[in-house]
Amino acid sequence: MGSEALQATKVYRQLLKAVKNHIGKEDHKRHFRDYITQEFQKNRGLLDLSSIQQKLKVAQNYTYLLNSVHHHKELLLSYNIAVDRSDEMKRTLGKSASSVGLQLPEVYQP
Predict the structure, then answer these.
(1) What residue stretches are annotated with the Complex 1 LYR protein domain (predicted)?
(2) Which residues contact residue 77 at a Cβ distance below 8 angstroms, ignoring those fewer than 6 apart?
(3) Is the pTM of this model over 0.70?
(4) Apex 12 CA angle, 44 and 5, nearest 5
(5) Among residues of the chain, what percentage have pLDDT more than 90?
(6) What is the rounded distance in angstroms from the CA atom of residue 24 to the CA atom of residue 70?
(7) What span, in angstroms and rounded, lies between the C-alpha atoms of 28 and 1?
């Protein structure tokens, strides 16, 4: 049962990392992380090997989906295909500013 526990830990960490990177870590989006944590804790005592593998496969597939959707969106933005580029420009400027220790000011919108 040791290898399954290590695999579950690895999948759990990868899934939480994908959620943090692609969905966000703000408080109003915390329910995603809470649900994942709750599901992993609920299935901790599961003894059926096929059921464990099936649930880990679902978690791996969801991690893959999150990463793929994010990558696809970045490709669409880079190819400028019918997607608003203002968010990309804000993100690029924000990364540039933060790399030198600055923050972009908030834009006033009435």
Answers:
(1) 7-62
(2) 83, 85, 88
(3) no
(4) 45
(5) 25
(6) 12
(7) 36
